[in-house]
What we know:
- The protein is an all-alpha fold.
- It has a domain at 161-224 and 234-327 and 345-372: Photosynthetic Reaction Center, subunit C, domain 2 (Orthogonal Bundle), CATH 1.10.468.
- 38% of the residues lie in helices and 2% in strands.
- It has helices spanning 2-24, 50-59, 78-81, 93-107, 128-146, 148-151, 158-162, 209-214, 237-254, 272-292, 315-319, 352-363, and strands at 33-36, 45-48.
- A two-stranded antiparallel sheet has the order 1-2.
- A hairpin with an 8-residue loop joins strand 1 and strand 2.
Amino acid sequence: xxxxxxxxxxxxxxxxxxxxxxxxxxxxxxxxxxxxxxxxxxxxxxxxxxxxxxxxxxxxxxxxxxxxxxxxxxxxxxxxxxxxxxxxxxxxxxxxxxxxxxxxxxxxxxxxxxxxxxxxxxxxxxxxxxxxxxxxxxxxxxxxxxxxxxxxxxxxxxxxxxxxxxxxxxxxxxxxxxxxxxxxxxxxxxxxxxxxxxxxxxxxxxxxxxxxxxxxxxxxxxxxxxxxxxxxxxxxxxxxxxxxxxxxxxxxxxxxxxxxxxxxxxxxxxxxxxxxxxxxxxxxxxxxxxxxxxxxxxxxxxxxxxxxxxxxxxxxxxxxxxxxxxxxxxxxxxxxxxxxxxxxxxxxxxxxxxxxxxxxxxxxxxxxxxxx
Length: 372
């Protein structure tokens, strides 16, 4: 009788042990590293697990071996030797060839030069891929020269996004407009509840990108005022949901939590990383609106999205799970042709005042800037 009782007791204990082990499997095993992000005593800490960080670093794709830059000399320029060179023509011939070889490895290592060029006539623009590649080089040069508030001196190259693929692994298309379901019980999804990977598999709105990374809507959950002021309207709950959806994308793309960019007990407070993100949002908007979207007519139908738009970029396109793309590898320094000319684009001129205000606010914690 006692044996039967003991055996009966062992079963639930074993099940409880297995359940506890399964539950604890998701917990962080110490030690972890924490950095204080806010005021003392508020638990505003950014936590990093060194083992997880090391695994992320090891999982980064191998960066292609890069030949050193060939200094400018008295020899001829690429535009003087080759035909129809519109972007990198001021490079020495040898360095121009080095750039072209690198771009081939970054984007189409299997197809080679023929992915963008007609092998019978390299100068002609008969392939849409060459037209697109030229514009993407211009975009890269603009980012490296005029968006140092976000990319600093690390910069970007084609490999930052493409990583050996013709189409970057992380892109987005505009979602179809939600339609009323024919089954009355199912209703309308109202643009959410579909668990899309781009917003961390949440039930939040699955296309915040059209509003904030292509459109220029303010990213706002609450105002600086305790109550709506006379003559103003309270933002609808959908605006908060869209904002949270975008923030989930940011968090997933960078592999970080909210405290990486925010004082989560005072979200309106400007801190340096929040200012960096502010510039990154505007950089992405400019990339999509001035460089990517205007190329829509150049792409064949199969390369377009469900609403006929072209694949666009967002944070995950470059970051792909880490806060510094490619672990901060400074590839751009080896390719001076991708640096561009530091001159404020006309499209960003209107942002100059806001950008200065953000920089000042980040330097003076506690300041509030209305635009995001």
